[in-house]
């Protein structure tokens, strides 16, 4: 498979907020992110996987590390109103990104990323793919060595 | 806020697979997606939100509708080996996408999307954002009216 990679990068400026047990009804995502934006918090990655057996969704998002306290304050205030089961967060995470060119390459890109990170024992905490880019979140400690592993794994495919 | 939107689109060719209760250890994502690729299934969107209170992750991905059976066969075969708690799927979903230009617009894009869908009572089932694009999955029945609502919501921002 011919992969054409334009960029492999590490963003270690982010923190993570996860809302566990979000009622899966229209309007909740809008309330959460409007509240976070009104508090002046800049959200980077937003990820929601499909609901679980209990019918509740799980929303994760990343914010600049210096804004984690205001992001948590907003979600904690919404918790009672919206019926969230729990909040979890991390003061620092690392986002690893690989950008490919063309629709058919992003699956190949994802598979190669997951394999490269698995081989060095790095756990993938969040995944978000789009047509031209695959983003994964790993622990802050794994950022640098994750980046090195991905640079090697894609060395032959760089544009 | 000046939003610059290059595209609002609906892809109603996809189906969804969700693996509930994935052990959150290095290597699992690699095994799943290598298995799915070896079965010749083309994966479009991959989403993993952060693990829940039970320490297990939840992986959702979309595949062409005609390939849902082989995708489920692969994940069912892996279920016992990898210790997945459950599988869920949908034979048809609708992916709504809005592409923005420039880093600072994608949060504004996401908020406007969520609000537009909330106002017409469309439930957001999955979310995946990247720097230039926001993808949400809704039910197949909500695809067309979701697209119309987004076209109106972003009419003033189209490039
Ligand atoms: C769940 C899955 O992503 C796992 N954490 C892995 O690294 O492969
Ligand atoms: C969980 C959240 O995304 C909800 N389903 C909504 O539509 O807002």
What can you see in these coordinates?
- Two copies of one chain form a homodimer.
- Chain A is an alpha+beta fold and 159 residues long.
- Chain A has four helices and six strands.
- A six-stranded antiparallel beta sheet of chain A has the order 2-3-1-4-6-5.
- In chain A, a hairpin with a 6-residue loop joins strand 2 (46-49) and strand 3.
- In chain A, helix 1 runs antiparallel to helix 2 (68-82).
- Chains A and B meet through strand 1, helix 1, strand 2, strand 3 and helix 3 of A and strand 1, helix 1, strand 2, strand 3 and helix 3 of B.
Quick description:
With 159 residues, the first copy, chain A, is of the alpha+beta class.
Topology, element by element:
The structure is a homodimer of 159-residue chains.
Chain A: E1 5-23, H1 28-38, E2 46-49, E3 56-64, H2 68-82, E4 86-100, H3 105-119, E5 126-130, E6 133-139, H4 143-153
Antiparallel strand pairs in A: 1-3, 1-4, 2-3, 4-6, 5-6
Helix pairs in contact in A: 1-2, 3-4
One threonine binds at residues 22, 24-30, 48, 57, 59 of chain A.
Mean pLDDT of chain A: 93
- Hetero groups: threonine
User: For the terminal residues of chain A, how far apart are their CA atoms?
Assistant: 15 Å
Structural class of chain A: alpha+beta
Spatial arrangement of strands, main beta sheet of chain A: 2-3-1-4-6-5
Give the amount of beta strand of chain A, in percent: 35-45%
Q: What is the 3D shape of chain A?
A: elongated
Helix content of chain A: 25-40%
Summarize the biggest pleated sheet of chain A.
Answer: 6 strands, antiparallel
Radius of gyration of chain A: 17 Å
Number of strands of chain A: 6
Order of helices and strands of chain A: EHEEHEHEEH
- Annotation field: number of helices of chain A: 4
Assembly status: homodimer
Low-confidence stretches of chain A: none
Largest interface: A-B, 56 and 56 residues
């Amino acid at each position: 498979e011919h992969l054409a990679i334009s960029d492999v990068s590490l963003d270690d400026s982010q923190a993570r907020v996860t809302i566990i047990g979000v009622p899966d009804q229209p309007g909740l995502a809008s309330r959460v992110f409007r509240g976070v934006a009104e508090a002046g918090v800049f959200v980077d990655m937003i990820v929601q996987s499909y609901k679980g057996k209990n019918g509740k969704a799980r929303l994760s998002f990343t914010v600049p590390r210096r804004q984690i306290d205001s992001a948590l304050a907003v979600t904690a205030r919404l918790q009672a109103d919206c019926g969230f089961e729990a909040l979890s967060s991390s003061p620092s995470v690392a986002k690893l990104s690989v950008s490919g060119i063309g629709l058919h390459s992003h699956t190949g890109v994802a598979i190669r990323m997951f394999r490269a990170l698995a081989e060095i024992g790095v756990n993938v905490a969040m995944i978000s793919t789009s047509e031209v880019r695959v983003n994964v979140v790993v622990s802050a400690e794994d950022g640098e060595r994750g980046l090195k592993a991905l640079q090697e794994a894609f060395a032959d495919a760089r544009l």
